[in-house]
Amino acid sequence: MYENGTIFIADSDAKTRDLVSAFLTYQGHNIAAPEPNLPFFDALEKNNVDIVIADTGYLRKVAPDFGDKSQLLNPLLVLIGYGDVTASELKQHSSETVFNLPKPLNLDELESLVLRAREYQSMKIYDSSTGCVANNKFLSGTMIGKSSPMQELFEMITKVAASNATVLIQGESGTGKELAARAIHQLSDRHTKNFVPVNCAAIPDDLLESELFGHVKGSFTGAYANRIGRFEMADKGTLFLDEIGDMKANLQVKLLRVLQNREFEPVGASKSQKVDVRIIAATNKNLEELVVSRDFREDLYYRLSVIPITIPPLRERSEDIPLLIHTFLTRFNDDKRHAVKGFSRDALGILCNYVWPGNVRELENLVERLVILKGSGLIVPDDLPEKYLSGKQPSAVPVQSVTLQADNVLPKDGICLNSAVDEFENNLIMQALVRAGGNKKEAALLLNLKRTTLIEKLKKKNLVFNED
Ligand SMILES: Nc1ncnc2c1ncn2[C@@H]1O[C@H](COP(=O)(O)OP(=O)(O)OP(=O)(O)O)[C@@H](O)[C@H]1O
Ligand SMILES: [Mg+2]
Description:
It contains 21 helices and 15 strands.
């Protein structure tokens, strides 16, 4: 959806249409515009449209039944609600979120709204078998496991899904916390509504409050328009607060209030808003320890851990490894049209005895890499990267943290400032990529960069992300 979707620009004012069109084309988006003699909805279907940027006056003229019909065209997102129809009015007609972009047009705001709309769209996919909007990640990847800890986990997930209770999922990195959260949502009555993830560690502190609760126009510099937050997006659905252990103290207080009263205030708003969300939180940190060290509020911890779930690390359920390898192998063979037959007994033995500090994610990435590199035949020990063969226990932290010491001294003979700065930058970029599991969007957020800027930097610096 993210790559293929087209943005449809329908504005009666040709100047605005050309400007928006040129700007978004320059940003690398696929653009389409109304064609003479082709009805509005036919044009949407023909162009595989997932975002419509339209002025409401124009929309009324060319498609008076837009509000009703847009629901049939899921996934579809209306972006602009300027003109004489307010965004909230339009929202009553459409099951989708409407983003409001006021005139005169601000291109920075347009860019940020389009990125946000894309992100919102990428969370959903239209499932033709059930006729509802479902979560794409859950559809493409179900949880695998036959070991008894995983069987117990599945039982727990099924029970928990039937209730509305707040769930706290703990476990090492890459164990499947997000997958478990999505499974709970998918199995619950809320599955036709949104599953909205928020990565509390990836969003800069000063933006997290507005990200969660939304803001009203003019409440701070850069708040060009009203914006709804993730809580509102998740209304009647599930809000997934990932990396909750990284949430700052002042926001912990605000979150506690929402959990107690089920209401919140958008930044700059004078009235609070009711919301009906199921909260699932996750962290790979030990929250009990954070409570003891006073980095996490004890009252919030108890509110969140109504139902605590711990996902065991992969090394404690090595009987799942062959099954996981088989599943990933089938998937990557299909995806990439390769024909790797399988793993030799020796290779499988080595992998079953490995400690997997990166858990299932590491295993998944390894199988993908082996399928690409080998292409066909049987994978034998010689095909495995060195670290799996050496029998060494890899450290749980893949990259040592850079020492950002204030007392860095200038070497006696001086230094080449440019290459030192370059090296420092490379190191931080690679750390961010490792922490984000290779996800460039998340890594860019950690570095407070745009995803495209990060990709440009990687290209320019000739940096290749390789988890080895
Ligand atoms: N039991 C499982 N069966 C199949 N795939 C799994 C399983 N557990 C995890 N995965 C896959 O491993 C990857 C990591 O899973 P996920 O993102 O849910 O982990 P996580 O615990 O949230 O990691 P992190 O702490 O780094 O955020 C995903 O691609 C997921 O699909
Ligand atoms: Mg996660």
